């Protein structure tokens, strides 16, 4: 879904605590309405009613529901990036499996709020140049960090650590988003365990061109 850049910008940037609280109420109400009714039926009138404000007050902050959803997506991305940075700043486990578990768990936890809302954000969120740039920048940062880790870790057997880092970042993010947002729920502990097992086997396998050394018979 695309829309004009101006139509995605909030109209009012809160400078006082009361105004910020009103904006938070709008976003909280919108998240609830989009999750319950879907995007098409999640009208600004319903959002305003749930937030207990007038429709005129809502339009002082956001020009339309596209702008509201765009901000919800931005906050979701920022929360995920902050959680991953906190994980990176923490003491790094020695085991490759536990490092991957930390990656997977952080992404899973950022997707647990509401599967219905996740589905709306994934399918209906306006695609602006700013949003694409934010996603690309965060992805580049995660790939660079992951590649550096792979190059330093003694358990890693893959040859191309850049491609491996891209695969890990993309696999965790996409698989978690798709399966948690799916209508049929999935056990998140099972999801975490299977992701970690799959990626650990991939990273610790011998390079594809490697062959076993020929056996020598004793004389």
TrEMBL record:
UniProt keyword Transcription present: yes
Residue ranges of every copy of the HTH tetR-type domain listed in the record: 20-80
Gene3D superfamilies in the record: Tetracycline Repressor, domain 2
Pfam families, A to Z: TetR_C_15, TetR_N
Residue spans binding DNA: 43-62
UniProt entry keywords in alphabetical sequence: DNA-binding, Transcription, Transcription regulation
Annotated InterPro entries: Homeodomain-like_sf (IPR009057), HTH-type_TetR-like_transc_reg (IPR050109), HTH_TetR (IPR001647), Tet_transcr_reg_TetR-rel_C_sf (IPR036271), TetR_C_15 (IPR041669)
Any GO molecular function: DNA-binding transcription factor activity
Highest taxon in the source lineage: Bacteria
Name of this protein: DNA-binding transcriptional regulator, AcrR family
Organism whose genome encodes this protein: Streptomyces melanosporofaciens
């Amino acid at each position: 879904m695309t829309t004009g850049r101006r139509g995605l910008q909030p109209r009012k940037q809160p400078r006082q605590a009361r105004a910020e609280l009103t904006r938070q109420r709008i976003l909280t109400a919108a998240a609830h309405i989009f999750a319950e009714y879907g995007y098409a039926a999640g009208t600004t009138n319903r959002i305003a009613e749930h937030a207990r404000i007038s429709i005129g007050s809502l339009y002082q902050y956001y020009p339309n529901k596209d702008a509201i959803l765009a901000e919800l997506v931005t906050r979701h991305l920022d929360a995920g990036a902050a959680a991953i940075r906190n994980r990176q700043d923490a003491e790094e486990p020695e085991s490759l499996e536990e490092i991957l578990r930390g990656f997977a768990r952080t992404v899973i936890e950022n997707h647990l709020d509401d599967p219905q809302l996740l589905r709306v954000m994934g399918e209906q969120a306006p695609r602006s140049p700013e949003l694409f740039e934010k996603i690309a920048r965060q992805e580049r940062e995660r790939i660079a960090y992951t590649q550096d880790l792979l190059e330093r870790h003694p358990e890693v057997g893959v040859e191309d650590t850049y491609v491996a880092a891209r695969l890990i970042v993309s696999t965790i993010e996409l698989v978690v988003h798709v399966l948690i947002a799916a209508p049929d729920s999935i056990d998140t502990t099972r999801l975490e365990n299977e992701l970690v097992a799959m990626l650990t086997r991939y990273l610790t396998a011998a390079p594809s061109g490697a062959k076993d050394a020929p056996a020598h018979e004793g004389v």
